[in-house]
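User:
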Amino acid sequence: MSNPDFFAPETVAGMYKRLAAKREPYIRRAEEAALYTIPSLFPKEGSNGTTEFRKPYQALGARGLNNLTAKILLAMFPPNTTWFRLGATEKAKEEVKQQIGEDAASELDHRLSLREQKIMRYHETRQFRVTLGEAIKQLLMAGNGCLFMPPKEGGIKLYKLSSYVCERDGLGNVFNLIAEDVLAYAALPDAVQELISRGSSQHSPDQEVKIYTRTFLQDDRWISYQEVDGQSIPDSGQDYPKDLSPWIPLRMSKVDGESYGRGYIEEHIGDLESYDRLCQAMLEYAAIAAQIKFLVNPNGQTQARRLVNSKNGDYIPGRKQDVEALTLDKFADFRTAKEQADTLAAGLSMSFLLNSAVQRQAERVTAEEIRFVARELEDTLGGIYSLLSQELQLPLVRRSVVQLQTMGELEELPKGTVEPTITTGLEALGRGHDLEKLKTFLSYMEGIPEAASYMKLGGLLTMVATALSMDISSLVRTEEEVQQANQLALLRDMLTKGAPQLAGGFAQAQLQEGGK
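Assistant: Predicted structure:
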């Protein structure tokens, strides 16, 4: 006989439970990574404020995690600087040019710059950097995280891997996501309280209630609704454009065929675990070696009782040979363990970009050597920057614009007229390398006296501005403008020497002609 509930529609809670089984291996790896870094960042299920977490025997994991988080956060979201640029499409530029005139480019850039500054102020007032820092920690440790940017309330919220599930297609695009919120019964709206109280006993105010929010892709639009106790919450349905979903699922690395990413700590978990065990062994050895105990020959002339009861400076009958300090003959073994621990610590410090690993241990270490090693270490994060720029930074800018427009703090522009471009992370690394190459080139040219006559100053200035991500179209003259200025200067010099009384009027006329 068939099960009558076999063909019943699946509830969101049931779907969440089914997808959570596929998420379980990633949860276990995240919990293991937390044990050797910061255990409270990803506790086991059922943990709360009173839970006593395991205390690691070393602080290198926590220090490395915090340091790498700070470096990535600074590289991708530098303070007091826009990390993105709003650029108008060619069609929008032509329309503005027809309305404003020849000064359309500078006017449009000015308006978009004001728009950028308003978005940055919104991020600072809503403390986006705090949440983004926690998100990067979760990515480094668990490999996954999800940001939620509500359209009406504004702000940003982070969901850990243990609080959501998702499904991706073969190309890595999310098409189904379910988030789990645990709230107290008293914190629920009246309509939701009434919904879950039908046909059941009265709930206590502090009773925990799970609310599931499902968002799935259908016909190039995101459909979202909420469910509690197997029932859909009225008026919870919403829909969004495909590229403007308030849910931003993140991953540290892309793995084809998997719906979740892998954490950075997972790649170094073997070294972290070995280093933690060696630190534990050395700490236990040091504690034992620090104890002071003496052995007294029971058949000798010296009595242990007299030694214990004697005062400082007393004379006690006995023989020196009868008393011997207890020591551990394990120095060679201890040294081997310490050397291995130092090797592991050096490797982990390099992986976590700690400053102590950048500077070579020597009497003379040049600044250029430190910069080279630091730049080489930063390059190892290039893959992280490239993925997060597409899955974190771009969606973050787009959703911020939607939030500000919904709150009436930003005017709505026609669709497809303005697109954001990320100017930090991997882009900044590439531009930084170009600038370093230019500096090296110019330092070599300084030693060649004839090099200046072969240099094209305009091209050099353009390359420097490009490496600095600057628009110098209104600051640097073109070749034609430079030639015209040189000709005017030559004419003025000739007239000054030949006919001083005509120099002022002629030069002024030429300058007016050149400005037309």
